[in-house]
Amino acid sequence: FLSIAALGAATIALATDSPVPAEAAGWPAGCITTLPPSKTRRLAWTVDDGSSTSTLSSYLKLLERNDDLKMTMFVLSCSTAWKTHEKRIRALIQSGQIQMANHTRDHKNLNRCSNKEVAKQLIACDKFIKDTYEVDPAGYWRPPYGSLSTRVMKIAADNGFDRPMLWDGSTGSSFTSKTSTVWKNAQRYMTNGRIVLDHANGKSTVNNFDRIMRMLKSRDLATVTLSEAFEKKF
Fold it and tell me: How many angstroms from the chain centroid is the CA of residue 212?
């Protein structure tokens, strides 16, 4: 697909740890961390996990109220929130505001998994997305914790998951993140050309929605899904 060697982040924990800034550690060559060049000022707002039904609902409400806003959502398929909000998500997929992508079944560190388990985690999530929303994630996936190796990438690619999407900026959101910390990170990383990592788990980003939207407008930044950025010309 694409071979964009880039700097990455060491880990990001599902529940409590704030992510390390993207420049803190390296990822294998071939993973994708930034958007391709464009004449359009844009960023990709990507949202992982969805472990909180109420938090995911808040993200959907933001999208429903702003029809020019777009996000790529990396589904953790063991979370019931994705089924709870199925109808709303389907509508946002139809409107082109949401792209569904693969974040594995239950957030295991793939570097610690057997070859068989790596494939199982990705295939299970892929099947869930196809069965639930009748859309194909088209090989877009993100490793839990940002843990990635050439072995895992090869297993993924051998099973049709050939678009390993990482990030080069993060809101630092988690269950325990402070609203002020997320706002500081949003100001730093929500800039032109970035793939920005966020999480629909706690409320720290939700609490910043209004000023994030104002900031995007003031910076003249459009939001794009990853498939738009990598599969369409702008």
Answer: 17
